[in-house]
Amino acid sequence: EYERLLPHVAHMPMWAIGAIVVVVLALVACLGFCIWKKCINKGKKPKKVRERKGGRGRRKKEGEGEGEEGKEGEEEEKENFGKLEFTLDYNFTENQLIVGILQAENLPAMDMGGTSDPYVKVYMLPDKKKKFETKVQRKNLCPVFNETFIFKIPYQELGGQTLVLQVFDFDRFGKHDVIGQISIPMNSVDLAQPLHEWRDLIGGEKEEQEKLGDICISLRYVPTAGKLTINIMEAKHLKAMDCGGLSDPFVKVVLQYQGKRLKKKKTTVKQNTLNPYFNESFSFEIPFGQIQKVQVLVTVYDYDKLGSNDAIGKVWIGYGASGVGLRHWSDMLANPRRPVAQWHALLPEEEVDEALKKPIR
């Protein structure tokens, strides 16, 4: 068979033989190249996989790095409320907690001019019976106070109380803004030795308006006789001021004309009640020409046999008042000779006194 093919090959032209040789060589070369490439790729593949994995790891690490930087940025962006230097000491012989407010630093600017008018309010929770305030330091972000306040509290009662140091920005014409505060649970302080330290202020929420109770007052004015009658009718839901959860309330009525005190009257004391009924009337002679500028200040006190009487809350009615106090006065003037009764929510005494100091617009 091989011999039979030879004559055919012998009779093939040279160019055909050359073409066959070239094709065969090309096929061999392709086959060799493919084998070589496959071998090379096998050797490199793990490296590529490793690189990919490594890349993912690097990207992850970079991401983590960015996250950490973000966290750092957030920490840096945390609002600064400044810090306060204070002292605490306890006089065991006199049962006195002595609080020193020394100075503040790096307070935030609360006013348009890039400054603040800070002062510090000092009080104890939960009762808030006694509150102190430092003087206002005008236009100062690093104010020096150097003021001392004394709370007379038996040592046994201190553990359940919290001292609050609250920094405010004073505003002559509006509500004072809270800059920041420090709360110190007294059971966390060793009072065997004086404490003197700096602490960062934390964002102070506005002091919650404490519910002090309500009082019902009737007003009647007779223009022809120039006679103003104030009837203290009753009070309800008064704040408990005594240890037993009750109070011994009485009411003081002060009449002022253009800021000057004219007269004052008091009701009788009602023992052990938060919902006293008084129904006591007081009459004042006020000429018709002056009635527009009269202020009626009604304060509910808790009577104390041994110490000073504590104010539970206060109401301002008449000239310069706002809200219910102004509306009640206007209703009385619009209805001469007729008694006009109205319930008033009691406000903290210091808040009303502060409002009275402001110029009436």
From TrEMBL:
Residue ranges, compositional bias (Basic and acidic residues): 61-70
InterPro entries registered for this protein in UniProt: C2_dom, C2_domain_sf, Synaptotagmin
Principal place of residence: membrane
Keywords tagged on the record: Calcium, Cytoplasmic vesicle, Membrane, Metal-binding, Repeat, Synapse, Transmembrane, Transmembrane helix
Entry-linked Gene3D superfamilies: C2 domain
SMART domains: C2
Feature: compositional bias, Basic residues: 47-60
A Pfam family annotated for this UniProt entry: C2
Region: Disordered, residue numbers: 47-79
Subcellular location as annotated: Cytoplasmic vesicle, Secretory vesicle, Chromaffin granule membrane; Cytoplasmic vesicle, Secretory vesicle, Synaptic vesicle membrane
Protein name according to UniProt: C2 domain-containing protein
Membrane-spanning ranges: 12-36
CDD domains documented for this protein: C2A_Synaptotagmin-1-5-6-9-10, C2B_Synaptotagmin-1
Domain C2: 80-199, 211-344
Membrane disposition: Single-pass membrane protein
MF term (GO), any: SNARE binding
Taxonomic source organism: Esox lucius (Northern pike)
Required cofactor(s): Ca(2+)
GO BP: calcium ion-regulated exocytosis of neurotransmitter; synaptic vesicle endocytosis
Listed GO CC annotations: axon; chromaffin granule membrane; dense core granule; plasma membrane; synaptic vesicle membrane
